[in-house]
Amino acid sequence: KVFSPVSGSRSSKTFKPKKNIPEGSHQYELLKHAEATLGSGNLRQAVMLPEGEDLNEWIAVNTVDFFNQINMLYGTITEFCTESSCPVMSAGPRYEYHWADGTNIKKPIKCSAPKYIDYLMTWVQDQLDDETLFPSKIGVPFPKNFMSVAKTILKRLFRVYAHIYHQHFDSVIRLQEEAHLNTSFKHFIFFVQEFNLIDRRELAPLQELIEKLGSKDR
What is the DSSP letter of 206? Predict the structure, then answer.
């Protein structure tokens, strides 16, 4: 299910439907725990695995949460991210991303940022909706390849942050979304650092920002 957005058709603020964690489920409790510890303001502590919890489940819940956050953040700037303003998916002049998902598109293709992000978010959503990969029911085990799937999802979600920071930060400031973006990204980075989920080379486009965010928190 790949659809190509017609430029200008996505004026709505939300970009993809929000992925809901079923209320009353254990994952919902974990999400509430995550939100409560986030409220304390100590992000390093907030990302740690709660005592006695399953690592896969903790990573699953947070991955869904980051998908929703990035979805919302990108949704606020879609009108500025167009085929003409962003003909390639980039994060500054040195980093360009080509899309491949290994199934529908095996050979990486060069495409505009809105198209790339559309492919990316649709692909992530398909993974999150797959009960064999992201089981929502208690007692259903996570698959053996769960960690590698989660790492690929997070690596790709990082690229949306990188694109927003490099190409659309002026719009973010105009919309007064800067604090929201920084907090979300800081949370994301502390999380992937805590569990070593993204290769350092992949983080290079935002390395200076990552160091700055980290040094403030030591």
Answer: G
Residue 111 assigned to a binding site: no
Contact 165, 206 (CB under 8 A): yes
Please state the domain count of the chain.
1
Residue 19 lies in a domain: no
Is 26 annotated to bind ligand? Answer: no
Q: How does DSSP assign 116-128, residue by residue? A: HHHHHHHHHHHHH
Q: Which two tokens stand for residue 84?
A: 């003409």
Q: What is the mean pLDDT of each run of 10 residues along the chain (218 residues)?
A: 36 56 78 73 87 93 94 94 96 94 88 96 94 86 96 97 96 93 94 96 95 75
Q: How far apart are CA 159 and CA 205, in angstroms?
A: 9
Residue 8 domain flag? no
- 109 DSSP assignment: B
Residue 140 is assigned to a structural domain of this protein:
yes
Task: For the chain, count helices (H), then strands (E).
Answer: 7, 2
Residues 47-73, buried b or exposed e (16+ Cβ, 10 A)?
beeeeeeeebbbbbbbbbbbbbbbbbb
State the CATH number of the domain containing residue 74. 1.20.140.30
Q: In whole angstroms, give the CA distance from residue 150 to residue 192.
A: 10
* 163 marked among binding-site residues: yes
Q: Answer yes or no: is 86 a known binding residue.
A: yes
Give the DSSP H or E segment for 147: helix 146-174
Determine the structural domain holding residue 104 and report its residue range.
Answer: 26-215
Please state whether the predicted TM-score (pTM) of the whole model is above 0.85: yes
User: Does residue 152 lie in a domain region?
Assistant: yes
